[in-house]
Amino acid sequence: MTLQDSVALVTGASSGIGEETAHALAREGADVAVAARRRERLDALADDLEAAHGVETLVVPTDVREEDQVEAMVAETVETFGRLDVLVNNVGVGVGSDVEELSTEDYRLMMETNADGYFFATRAAIPHLRETEGNLVFVGSFAGQYPRPFNPVYAATKWWVRGFAHSVEGQVGSDGIGVSVVNPTEVRTEFGSESGETFEERFEPGEVTEPEEVAEAIAFAAAQDRSTVHEIDLYRRDKFDGW
Ligand SMILES: NC(=O)c1ccc[n+]([C@@H]2O[C@H](COP(=O)([O-])OP(=O)(O)OC[C@H]3O[C@@H](n4cnc5c(N)ncnc54)[C@H](OP(=O)(O)O)[C@@H]3O)[C@@H](O)[C@H]2O)c1
């Protein structure tokens, strides 16, 4: 399995898991299109990818809540490279916690980013992935697998991601498209920045998973050329302590 001569598109690539995933895919030989809103971060990442791995890159500043921008993101990737082998739906935000205190604005932010954004990108990518018999990889979460006493709306978006991904898997598997979900527990990234404290700040190095580890799991799923990696759970080892 290799990603040599492949083209990958990663959403939420300006930090955390997405940024490390772009590196992991480029290390395996893929040319990589990187999408998020912060263009300067993406420009710097693209320079790093080209210097470190000798691959081609494309920067596509995109707000995944905007249908037109997501359509353009996929179209520009295919126009530039001539194909699409891998889409990593990674973008995601979590804000707030208790349902009775959650504003409608924050509810919509999570639904539009974590659910609508994945739908728009998946819909646009499927025809191109069918051509290459490529792979769709979704970033889910432990929060989308088990009930927990924290931010039910964020959790529900991740249950949605898993439900959507596996249903799409049922639909496009016979077209030769692989569909995978990768579920991390806590990862040291900028996640949580909307609420004032990032997971990078909250957790010490070594306390929870690092984004590079999740990126390797995503790259493993993305490099499959025959089988589907149905789901990978990548948990911190003490997750069930006191469960
Ligand atoms: N960290 C964890 O503990 C953890 C655990 C389980 C699952 N996850 C999931 O992992 C995925 C990646 O998160 P992360 O931990 O790497 O967090 P992160 O460092 O905060 O990265 C989130 C990325 O999403 C982008 N983004 C946010 N809103 C966007 C929008 N409207 N349009 C386009 N891009 C947008 C951000 O870039 P811009 O601001 O530049 O747009 C950033 O690149 C998410 O789906 C998250 O739910 C994280």
Automatic annotation (TrEMBL):
<comment type="similarity">
    <text>Belongs to the short-chain dehydrogenases/reductases (SDR) family.</text>
</comment>
<dbReference type="Pfam" id="PF00106">
    <property type="entry name" value="adh_short"/>
</dbReference>
<dbReference type="InterPro" id="IPR036291">
    <property type="entry name" value="NAD(P)-bd_dom_sf"/>
</dbReference>
<dbReference type="InterPro" id="IPR002347">
    <property type="entry name" value="SDR_fam"/>
</dbReference>
<dbReference type="GO" id="GO:0016491">
    <property type="term" value="F:oxidoreductase activity"/>
</dbReference>
<protein>
    <submittedName>
        <fullName>SDR family oxidoreductase</fullName>
        <ecNumber>1.-.-.-</ecNumber>
    </submittedName>
</protein>
<keyword id="KW-0560">Oxidoreductase</keyword>
